Amino acid sequence: MQIPDYYEFLNQAKIISGKKAMEHIPFELRGYDAQKPLVVTSRALSESGLIKKFIGAFKDSAVTLGGIFNDVRDYAGIGLARDAAFLYRERGCDSIIAVGNGPEVDVAKAVNILVAEKTDDLFKYFEGTPLKRHLKPLIVVPACCSSGMEFTNTVTVDNRSLTSNFLYPDLAVLDPRMTPAKSRDCVAESTVIAMAHAVGAALTDIHSPMIEAYAHSALRYLGLHMTKGLKKPGHVETSLALHNAYALAALAFSNAPAGMVHLLAVELARATDISAGKFMRILLPYKMAHMMHKKMKIRDELFLALAGYDEYAATPAKDRSRAGVERVLALLAGLKGMMPETMKDLKVPKYKLGDIAKAASARSGKRYSEADCKTVLEHAWEGRAF
Amino acid sequence: MQEVIGTNNRMLEIDLTAKKFQVTEVDKKDRDLYLGGKGLGLKLLYDRMEPGLDPLGPDNMIAFTMGILMGTGAPCSGRFEAITKSPLTGAMVTGTCGGPFGMAVKTSGWDAIIVKGKCSAPTYLYIDSKGVQFKPAKGIWGKDTEAAQAALLKEGAGAIVIGPAGENLVKYANIASGHRFLGRGGIGAVMGSKNLKGIVARGNEFKIVPANKKKFAKANKRFFKFINKNPITSGSYRSFGTNANVNLSNASGILPVRNFTGGSHGEAHKISGETMAERFHTKYDTCKPCAILCGHRGTINGKEHHIPEYETIGLMGSNLEIFDPAQIVEWNELCSKYGMDTISTGGTLAWAMEATEKGLIKTNLKFGSPSGVSEMIRDIAYRKGMGNDLAEGSRAASKKYGGEDFAIHVKGLEMAAYDPRGCVGHGLSYATANRGACHLSSVLFSLEAYLGMASPYATRWKPFMVKFMENVLSAVNSLHICLFTAYAVFLEPPLIKLTPVPLIKQLNQNLSLVALNLMDVSLWPELWHAVLGKTYIPYLGMLKFIKAGERVHVLERYMNTREGISRKDDTLPRRFLTEGRKCDQKEHTVPLEKMLGKYYRLRGYDANGIPKKRTLKRLNIAIQ
Predict the structure, then answer these.
(1) What's the rounded Cα separation, in Å, for the pair B477 and B440?
(2) What is the pTM of this model?
(3) Which of B404, B410, B558, B590 to mutate to test the interface with A (most CBs of A within 10 A)?
(4) Which ipTM was obtained for this model?
């Protein structure tokens, strides 16, 4: 293990995970001096009955839900955020609870900026004006197809992203009544996103024992629970374990620079309207193969995280790096038949790859060259080995 | 003048890179299966184009097909079709157009032209019965569509040209033929990417004669009679043009207002066809030959102008909250000169206005204010400043700046001027239409909102109705003949004419199969058979015709699925799925999911919207 020169790490969110975790929310709200939260969620979750379960957790408490804004769908836009902020102000709310995944949490974070900063101009914070103070208490309750991004310090509204340490949720609640997935595809996608983030963080140039600890734990959890989670998406304990893994991966991701797989997948999703998770599944093996091809260092600890001490110790030091990659590939092989394996399968137009590589390289601040991005994309498109 | 009996059966395949052309024959089997026009064009490209190619790259091809009826004197048959891969949507796009070009090509002895490759310098093509000449377009490159056409028409009877928008690869640039346009999907940008400014055809070298003159004359007579009896084709459209739709749409709550946030407006009458006819003293200005006469010119401040179509009025008028018809006429003419689709331009401007209002972009565009719109239209055409981003269309702009939830498009194509919350079957049609948010794929809005023949909110039989109408209209576009003739063909035969409208509505709501069988569409296939001298068997011939339409529609869908189109793309903008409108007594959204699965089953697609192998086999579509 390398001794770090310098690093920073922040995880501001308190995490409560386990049986009846949601029943703790009223008590936690009191700690923030809040008693009238606005709930931000989606119609789909309301219709699935999950919101009923969530509301049930408050029945013996003194907390009054200020309102339930359930208009969120698969896209977080400023219009929704303003509508929800209007409801927040109208009902005199004092805190926000996001129930759901990416878009619900993004809308909740956007509402938080609007109401805490008493503004209607959200985008000035995206264009350089810094957030300078704590916002209103924000609680997230991931549900169903979460990918862990709810735990991060980033908000994405109208395709623009803002990262600030004030955007970490104050509390994240992992309750097994909310975490079971509705389908195998849902588990597959969440798992692969977490895996890509954990691997990306584990392989980053920054040597931070904190990032490594979170990333490695995430991979360990994924390795242990992924197969069962895919077999039984509704299994309560497994889904809770996987959600813990998603949280760990996301926190590692939040503290590390975004990896190439994430950057390319986001750009591909934007260009094709296909979910980023599907692209992460395709790109991750090619990114690792590309690293090996370019003789870049893949840390042995990746193997340690995935295989455990016994196997790690039994493997010669020179083989551990490759063995780590093989372990990741073996995990991904568990998704066979559930997710496409080449971009050709997804019918991504090849002529768009150049622009996508350029955009991803620019987004990385040129940490990844356009040529490297394009090489990985082209191999992944053709399904061609390095 | 030489006579051509039936059809030329010859086509030109032009390679711009090599500056060569070859003459090939239209396959007779393809002619029978795909009729001509749109169907034949799609089949020609299906056989020649690889999926996944860059729409603005040299490998993309454009097919121009003239149709069987062109030149025969059949009513409203002066239309041709263009087919290519759209740079706006990434899927196939087909467009139909009046104007003199189609007739000039057909009477030069050609049924179709396929263009591929890229010229090394700006070029235009001269076509006559002998073939093609490649001519430098240095003198006309940069000129607007009017000036460029004026130059080319010195050499022939009909021309198509692109304007500056096409040259600058604006993703919704169109192609002009006379004062008519191949409007949608950016076919003009594809021509621009090939450095092809225009094509001029000499024309008047051949006379087209139907093979069975007697039967043709008989069918033609009946056709004219129907057109002249129908209150839409001989009444409202003839008197006021397609702008007759403004008052109808406003009354039925499907007029786009303020980027589709509303469905009617108190000032809409100011931009209606009736008002314009009175205010601008309009007169006919139509395609040739035409029996409906929907195109109009009018006089504004002592100068003659083209009166915009309903779509332009809807998208550049009420949708921007502009109710000054003279202003819309000005913007319409700007778009015409630059060579830009007014539907996409209006839709993109509306997105920009809402994005500005919400703080996503900084422009001086504002709903209800004409200020800055003309300048932005010019900036789009020349790709300057924010115009450069808007030239990519509302989908691309919203992906860059945000605002995807109010970018009103399907598959990247901006929506036409009918709000589907007031006609949910048409909403299904928008979602599933092959080229994107196309109003011409099924025109169900007319049955649901205008004619009262189907409930606007019932969903039960809508998938069936959409499928039926798509099949019929695909066949009509393959003849080729104007879609507006559908009003006459559908509604004038005695059986449907004598059935009370409320009964048709009840049947459509509860037993659509019976209602649609009341519709006798035999006139169209009768004409096709007469021109080619084929025997028309009553009823069976009509079923064969509808099946050909189904084949054309499914082939286009199959080609699109090879480009990555699937269920994820068969959707509507979020606004229609989640937001109600104040103009409705009871708020309505489009229950798309309720209809989509059933539509796929009826079409023979799998759950992901991909045509099944057995569907393709049933329709004689070879799997590639």
Answers:
(1) 10
(2) 0.93
(3) B404
(4) 0.87
